[in-house]
Specification:
Blueprint lengths: L2 H21 L18 E2 L14 E7 L6 H4 L3 H9 L1 E2 L12 H10 L3 H4 L5 E4 L4 E4 L3 H4 L10 H6 L5 E4 L22 E3 L7 H12 L9 E6 L1 H9 L4 H24 L3 E6 L5 E2 L4 E3 L10 E3 L2 E3 L3 H11 L6 E4 L20 E4 L4 E3 L15 E2 L14 E4 L7 E2 L8 H9 L20
Parallel strand pairs: 2-8, 2-9, 3-19, 6-7, 6-8, 11-16
Antiparallel strand pairs: 1-7, 3-18, 4-5, 9-18, 10-17, 12-13, 14-15
Helix pairs in contact: 1-8, 8-10, 9-10
């Protein structure tokens, strides 16, 4: 390790302590509380910013989980609307990858790869190679980098000696020792493991604190995540007062974030995105084992894993044309636009819902606990259901004002951010040309 790296590590340790002190002690309502809600920042001893990196702009990438593309107008989000006016937006929404769920799409945004290529094909799935189940809520699994493929933006930056910071983002906690994203896979220099108890104002404050660090250790890529809108949508549905209130709450925080960023007088481009939309759930559970014998199959949600090729073929024939609430395909025949026909983690056969139906492969065992589906739902084909489309707004010194772009796939966010940061991109599913029109240069 060079002397510069060692010095940077000591410097950051001291500054991180100051950052924690700065944001500790304020509760959800803004009143002073104990320090227990303060974000637990993890520091990684990465190299300091190179001289070249210090010349580059800064990008703050904010995810508003479950913020449907039309919520900005439907529920009057003035800060987001003003940002869209002075920057770029997709008026008809950004197209999530299939399935339009949280972890697959956060990884698509941050790697530029479809789920079948970055490997996280659902929030929960079985992997025949690991012979294990990936569960986003199990830290032993979700923090294990061997489950992931691709090069996330923070790793791309850190490998170019440009610091990054993540205030929550699926995959950002993965262990560097296990990371298979690339030969020198790296976690961001600063990250906060997900904790929904951390109030939004403290999340925003931490972002500002990171961007107040000295230039040598200041992150040029910062991610921020807020889950309020998604939670309200699931519990009460997309047309509820609760979603309206959640939209207002996160929009207010975005206003505070913008104020804080403006006061820094740095060249900062702000990207506001969502992973998916939301729709009101139709009917109750759709159980695939009502039509096919899946007793020997492994199953996770709607995903089916056949013990043999013959079993997969029999299940496909049994499910074909049944129910009216789903289409079934052999994995190799899943429609190309879904990009879901290559990875064995998707199972075989594959059931694709035709509406906002909750599909599962197996019913609970007799006597087992069962819960009704949530009021709001997502995960569906965005080409079939426009309500799956997500928010996209970007503004800043490098973004043209008043630009409206047609709906585009979210894998195209990665290369445009990389271009702003001056980072070279390898082979990905996204294309830099799709969004190059929003850039001034």
């Amino acid at each position: 390790m060079s002397e510069r790296t060692r010095l940077g590590g000591r410097w950051v340790a001291a500054l991180t302590l100051l950052a924690l002190c700065a944001v500790a002690g304020f509760g959800r309502d803004g009143t002073q509380q104990g320090a227990s809600t303060a974000p637990k920042v993890v520091e990684v001893a990465n190299a300091a910013n190179s001289a070249e990196a210090q010349k580059r702009p800064y990008v703050v990438l904010v995810s508003l989980d479950g913020f449907r593309w039309d919520y900005m107008k439907k529920y009057a989000a003035p800060h987001l609307a003003a940002m869209a006016k002075r920057g770029a937006t997709a008026p008809e929404g950004m197209i999530p990858s299939y399935p339009s769920t949280t972890f697959p799409n956060h990884l698509a945004l941050i790697t530029g790869l479809y789920p079948e290529h970055h490997g996280i094909v659902a929030n929960v799935f079985y992997d025949p190679i690991h012979d294990q189940t990936y569960n986003y809520g199990d830290h032993k699994i979700s923090w294990d980098g061997s489950w992931y493929s691709g090069i996330p933006l923070w790793s791309l930056a850190e490998n170019s000696q440009m610091r990054a910071a993540c205030f929550f983002w699926p995959g950002s906690e993965a262990s560097v020792d296990d990371l298979h994203w690339n030969a020198a896979g790296k976690r961001p220099s600063y990250f906060v493991p997900f904790d929904p108890a951390v109030p939004k104002n403290e999340r925003v404050a931490q972002v500002i604190t990171w961007l107040k660090l000295p230039a040598a250790v200041r992150p040029h890529l910062v991610t921020l995540y807020m889950e309020d809108v998604d939670g309200a949508g699931h519990a009460f549905g997309p047309d509820s007062t609760q979603v309206k209130d959640a939209v207002k709450a996160v929009d207010d925080e975005i206003g505070k974030l913008e104020e804080g960023l403006d006061e820094l007088h740095l060249r900062i481009d702000l990207f506001m995105v969502a992973d998916h939309g939301m729709e009101k759930t139709e009917d109750g559970w759709v159980n695939l084992d009502e039509w096919a014998d899946l007793s020997k199959f492994k199953a996770q949600g709607p995903l089916m894993y056949a013990p043999t090729e013959a079993d997969a073929a029999r299940a496909y024939e049994a499910l074909k044309g049944k129910g009216g609430k789903f289409h079934v395909y052999r994995r190799a025949d899943v429609p190309a636009h879904l990009h879901y026909n290559e990875n064995p983690r998707t199972g075989d056969p594959v059931a694709v819902a035709t509406g906002a139906f909750y599909i599962r492969a197996k019913r609970p065992k007799a006597g087992g606990a069962d819960k009704p589906p949530s009021v709001g739902t997502h995960g569906y084909d965005p080409q079939m259901m426009a309500t799956m489309k997500a928010l996209f707004v970007a503004a800043g010194p490098d973004i043209r004002a008043g630009v409206k772009v047609k709906s585009f796939e979210n894998v195209n966010v990665y290369p445009v951010i990389a271009r702003i940061l001056g980072l070279s991109v390898g082979k990905i599913d996204g294309d830099a040309k799709v969004l190059e029109g929003i850039l001034k240069e």
